[in-house]
Amino acid sequence: MINIRDKGAELWETWNRPKRITFVLVLIGLVGLLPYAGDFSFTSILNTPISSYQAVLVYPVGMFVLMALGLNIVVGKSGLLDLGYVAFFAIGAYTAAILGTKTHLNIWEILPIGMGLAMISGVLLGLPTLRLRGDYLAIVTLGFGEIVRIVAVNNRSTGGPNGIANVPNPPSIFGVRFALDNMKGFFWIIFVMILLVIWMVRRLSIRRPGRAWEAIRQDEDVAMLMGVPILRYKIWSFSIGAAIGGAAGVIFASKSMYVAPDMFTFNTSVLILSCVVFGGMGNIWGVVLGGTILAYLPERIRFINNARQLVFGLALVVIMNVRPDGLLPRKKREKITKVSAKPEGDSNV
Amino acid sequence: MNFSVVVSQFWPLLINGLALGFIYVLISLGYTMVYGVLRLINFANSEIFMVGTFATVIVSRNFFGFNQDTDPLSGFKLFFAMGACLVASMLVSGVTAVIVELVAYRRLRAKGTNRLASLISAIGVSIILQEGVRILTHSVPMSNPRLLRKFSVVTFGDVGIRVDTLLVIVFAAVLFFSVDRFVNKTLLGKAIRAVSMSEETSKLMGINLNRVISATFLIGGSMTGAAAFLYETVYENTKYNVGFSIGLAAFTAAVLGGIGNLRGAFYGGLSLGLLEQFAAAILGTQWKAVTVFLVLVMVLLFKPNGLFGEAVQQTRV
Predict the structure, then answer these.
(1) A5 lies in a domain?
(2) Does B100 score more than 90 pLDDT?
(3) Do A135 and B315 touch (CB under 8 A)?
(4) What is the number of alpha carbons within 13 Å of residue A95 lying toward its C-beta?
(5) What does the pLDDT average to over B278-297?
(6) For testing the chain A interface, which of B140, B297, B314 should be mutated: the one with the most A CBs within 10 Å?
(7) Which residue of B has its CA nearest to A160?
(8) pLDDT at residue A333 in the model
(9) Which of A59, A155, A266, B255 is deepest in the core (most CB within 10 A)?
(10) Is residue A295 a part of any domain in this protein?
(11) Contact status of A229 with chain B (Cβ, < 8 Å)
C-alpha cells in the first residue's frame, strides 16, 4: 500500500519556509476557486449531475468536512465515541432559525450565540455522562441526539414537524453576497471556518490539551495516575467539538433558509462519524479527505439514483476492510520515531 | 399527564408492556451475545430483524398463497403455517447474521484493528441490507396476512387481552430460557462464555474462535428472527426501515440490563417494554422515547454497568 502520508511529510520536511508558505497559499487559492470549477471544460467532470454543483460544495461537502473536523476532536483526538453529534448541529440551526425570525439579530451576531448554546449543552451533557466509558457513552450521546430531535418535533416554539421557514441569509461582508442564488459566498465562509478549525486543532494538538487528549485516548487509567485532570479535558474536547457543530448548524440554517426536525436524524450522526473513521481518525488531512469523498460521492453518482446508497454502503465495507485505519491514518508512534530520527533537536512540531 | 390511566388500565398496560418487552428481549439477545464475544456493537442487528419480518411475510404470502382476505386458520393448518413462517424467519435471520459476520467483522478481526473500523463496516453492511430491501420492495410497506384469529382471552373492563399478546409472552419466554440453558449447559455454550471472558486464553485452550463466533451470530440472529416473526404476528406490517427504531430500543434494553449479559438483556428488555407502555399512556406517545432515554441516563449515572451488568472491562475507541 502506498503511504501518501509519510511521502508527503518527508517532502514537507525538505522544504524551507517560503516554499511552505507558497504551497499553502496556492492550495488555499485553488480550493477557494473550486466553485468555478464546474464552468471549465476540463474540470467540469466534477459537476454533479442532478443537484447544483455549487450547492453540493456547500451542503454536503463543506458542512460535512467542518463537522467531521469537530467530531474528530471528540472521537479521534480524545477517543470518546459520540453517536449523537447531530444534536449540536441541530441546536445551532434552531438557534439561528428562532433568533433570526423572532429578533432583529443578523446571522453574524447569532453565530457566537449558537456556538455558545451548543457549547453549554455539550458541557451539560458531558458533566454527568463523560464519567461513563466506551459504549455506554455512545448510547447516551445517541439518546441525546434523539431527544433533541423529538423535542424539536413536539415543541411549539420550534415549529413542530413543519420546522421554521424564512430564516434570513447573512448580510454581505467584504462585498461577498450570501443568497440562495449565490452559493459561492457560503462556500467561502465555510472554507474560512474549516481553515480556522484546522489551525486551532493543530495548535491545540501540540500543547497541553492535545497531549492530555492523547493520553486519555491511549489509556485513561494511566493518564489519571499521571495527574491529567481527565474529566476537565474530556469536557473541553466535548464542548469544543459541540461549538464547531453549532457553528455549522447556524450557517446551515441561514443557507437553506429553512429548518425541520427530519434534517437531524441519527443517520446524519452516523454519516459524520463515517467521514471521520473512513478518512482516518485523528489525522486532520484524513478527516478532510474522508468528509470530502463521503459527502461528494453520493451526489456525483446520483445518475444511478436508486442504487446510490447501496454503492455508498458497499464503499464503506470495502474500504474499511482494505484500509481499516482509514484512507490517511494518523502515525502510530509519532513522538518516538521523531526522537530517534533526530535525537538532538526535538522541535516538538 | 394522565395518571388515572395507570389505575383504570393497569392490567392491559402491563400485559402489552410485557409482550413488547419480550420482543425486545429476543432482539437484544442479538446485540448482547455479539457484544459478549466481540466487545462490539452489532449495528447490523436492526437490519437482521428487518430481513426476518420480510421472510415471515414472503413465506406466508408466496409459499402458502395467503393474502389479506384469507380467513384465519385453525387446527393443524394454523400450526403448520405459523411454524413454517417461524422457521423461515429464524433461518433467514440467522444466516444473514452469519454472513454479516463474515463480510463485516472477520477480516477486520483477523487484522486486529480498532473497534471503530468494525463499527463503520457494520454500518456499511446495514446500509446495504436496508437499501437492497428498499429497492426490491420499491419502498412499499408490506402487510402480513392474519393467520391467527385474534380473540380476547380475558377482558378488563372494556379492554381485552388478545391471544397474540399471550402467544408472544409464552413463546418468547420459552425461547429465552432455552437459549439461557444452552449457553449455560452445553459445550458450545461453555465455549461462548469462555471466549467472552478472554479471547486469548480460550484460543490457547483449543477453542476454534471463528466457529464459536459464527455460532454466536447464528444464535443471536435466529433469536432476532423469532422476534421478527412475533412482531409480524402482532403488528402485521413491515417496511424496509422497520428495524431502525425497534433496534435502537432493543439496544437500549441491552445496555439497560448490562450489555454482554444474557439475564441482563432479559430484565432490561422487560423493563424497557413496560416503561414504554406506561410512559406512552401517562405522558403521550410522543414523549415515549425521551422518557426511555432519560431513565437510561439516570440508571447509567447511578449504576454505570447497567442494572444487572457484569463489570464490563474498560473499552476504548
Answers:
(1) no
(2) yes
(3) yes
(4) 30
(5) 84
(6) B297
(7) B286
(8) 53
(9) B255
(10) no
(11) no
